[in-house]
Amino acid sequence: MLGPMRAGTVVAMGGGGFSMEPDNPLLDDFVLSLVPGDRKPRVCFVPTAAGDPPEYIQRFEQAFGCGRAVTSVLSLFQREHADLRSFVLSQDVVYVGGGSTANLLALWRLHGLDQALLAAYQQGVILTGVSAGMNCWFKASVTDSFSVDQLHGLHDGLGLIGGSACPHYDGEAARRPTYLDLVGSGRLPEGYAADDGCALVFLDGHLAEAVSSRAGARAFWVSHHDDGARERALDVRYLGGSR
Fold first, then answer.
1. Is the pLDDT of residue 11 over 90?
2. Where are the alpha helices (DSSP H) in 7-53?
């Protein structure tokens, strides 16, 4: 079991958290538990991938603003913070919401948020997120950014974690076969897949552990071989206690 961390920490959620499991706070509570000290954590929500929708922001505030944390929202569509680097570095947790990974990366780079987040990562701010908020931290990923009915490989993530990522591994029928095909054919590098309700915890780019809010949620290392991709199941610690 990991204790509080202060450098190079990413918690990549395949699915879950307040937006997918509003009645199951285990993953979000786990993220908060990594913040050292006994004060309320400062948690910033970044809903860029979904276009900063008010209802998504409201759900975040309802989940974290009721005494669990000191909350803030970083919007790039109605930008309020001139100095993104200073603002991000003032947080304990940056929580990235789901949506379009491709749009998220483009807007972050246009505004310089990618560099601000790199500085935050290096100085101990915990980075987390779900779906696109998982994909963005990796070098490559599987995304539905370019089509409503087809998944594609994306190769220009932030690269804080090498290899590729696939969220919603059990939550969307096309995710697993697409990821296996992309890795098996060499069109995506080897990487990590996480079911809904499962999160991968990385420290300085290396997997430290996998945790879950649902008993039975899985995570895999997916590797490339001459005969295609192979899955290696990872140990997953269920946060709800005994299975």
1. yes
2. 26-33
The CA distance from 240 to 40, in Å, is 22
Q: How many domains does the chain have?
A: 1
Catalytic residue flag (residue 168): yes
Structural domain range at position 86? 9-158+199-208
20 is a domain residue: yes
164 occurs within a structural domain? no
Q: Which two tokens stand for residue 110?
A: 């246009």
Q: CA of 227: how far to CAs of 142, 181, 224, 232, in Å?
A: 21, 11, 8, 15
Average pLDDT over residues 186-196: 97
Q: Is residue 206 flagged as an active site residue?
A: no
In a domain, 235, yes or no: no
Instruction: Assign residue 114 the CATH number of its domain.
Output: 3.40.50.880
**Choice among 100, 131, 141, 145 that is catalytic:** 131
Does the pTM exceed 0.85? yes
Span 94-107, pLDDT tens digits: 999 999 999 999 99
Residue 167: inside a domain: no
Q: Which of 100, 168, 212, 224 is catalytic?
A: 168
Closest CA to 12 of 76, 80, 95, 84: 95
The answer to whether 41 and 31 have CB atoms below 8 angstroms apart is no
